[in-house]
Amino acid sequence: MAALVWVVTARNFFKSIVLSLSASLIVIGHLAAQEPTQTTSPNYICKDRPKDVAEPPDRSPAPVKDYRGKEASSPSAGEIAGKPPCPDGQVPFPVERYAPKGNPFFSGTAVDVPYNYADSWASAGGSIPLFDGAGVVTNVENPAVSSLSGTHSLFEVSVQGGEGNGNIVEIGWIVNAGDSGPHLFVFHWINWAQTCYNGCGWVQWSTTIYPGMSLTPGSQTYMGYVFYKGSWWGWYADQWVGYFPGSIWPSGFSKASLTQWFGEVYETDPTPATDMGDGHRANEDAAARFWYPCDVNAAQWVCWINPTPSTQQPEAPWYTILNVGGSTLRYGGPGGSSGVGVNP
């Protein structure tokens, strides 16, 4: 009889353990369900969209128009308007990246060595109203890039204001040493102080387009920035991507007095072997190009084409730029052979 009691007691004890474990698993499962799901990749982390995130403009980016008011065609999202990489309700927050970024033209100092630029620009002043942003249409290229650490080749539009035009927002495509192809990037400066790529205050909005994402070489895009309700909203492929809050700039930054559109190469070899654009110089028909460099008037909701922006290039023209008319500019070049003292 005692043995029977022991068996019953043991069974009850075992049953109580199972029930206890089951209850614990239920609690643990419940707690796990409350945790936000985070999916990671080398370039983004899936997170819930913050409740206090700003809303983008309730319309598409400002259309490109010429001085007569005739609207020019700009590319749509095309092949990158696909399936979002994150679960429903979440957005791909880009991973911050710290890497070299030099002072381009008009930084108040000489262009930083070892940077090279092929640059076009427009300034506002005198009777010209300040700009509310800028845009451009361009092809995404896949330049050959040296394997030297930190090397990159990019194309971007830069919107600048504040003292010495040192408050800046940038958007464009970039190929870094070791990359398999081009990626979207954003960057900003605060009074000529560098920050980082794809973060340092950037607020992601789009569920499909995000800084750091791979881009298709040869694709055509319309990209830029506009100041809207207190923030600098960036667009790519004619879609809103995200924004830098205006509060990032202590001295304020809501208008632009300088806009630039340029190719940039960074390589520590004094004779850069890295391509800019598609590797052809601007005097060649096959050279990389961009169209419709334009400045935004937010009140009119238009990006006015500047058909004749000023241009600059380094004294030693590894890379060149040329206005070929029709609101089109060609830029780029193949660099030189590795080593010091090789002339272009």
Note down, in words, how this protein is organized.
- With 344 residues, the chain is mainly β.
- The chain has a single domain, classed as Jelly Rolls (Sandwich).
- Helix content is 10%, strand content 35%.
- It has 1 helix and 19 strands.
- The protein has one helix at residues 2-34; strands at residues 44-48, 64-65, 90-94, 115-123, 133-139, 152-161, 167-176, 183-190, 193-194, 203-204, 220-228, 231-236, 239-245, 258-266, 288-297, 302-305, 310-312, 320-325, 328-332.
- Strands 2, 5, 10, 11, 12, 13, 15, 16, 18 and 19 form a 10-stranded mixed β-sheet that branches.
- A hairpin with a 2-residue loop joins strand 11 (220-228) and strand 12.
- It is globular and about 50 Å long.
In short:
With about 350 residues, the chain is mostly beta strands. Helices cover about 10% and strands about 35% of the residues.
Q: Keywords for this structure?
A:
disordered C terminus, 1 helix, single chain, disordered N terminus, mainly beta, 19 strands
Strand tally, please? Answer: 19
Radius of gyration: 26 Å
What string gives the helices and strands in order? HEEEEEEEEEEEEEEEEEEE
Structural class: mainly beta
Characterize the biggest β-sheet: 10 strands, mixed
Counted by DSSP, the helix tally is: 1
Give unreliable regions as ranges: 1-37, 339-344
Helix content: under 10%
Termini, distance in Å? 103 Å
Count of domain modules: 1
Question: How would the global form be characterised?
Answer: globular
CATH architecture title: Sandwich
The amount of beta strand, in percent, is 25-35%
Here the CATH topology equals: Jelly Rolls
Mean pLDDT equals: 84
CATH class: Mainly Beta
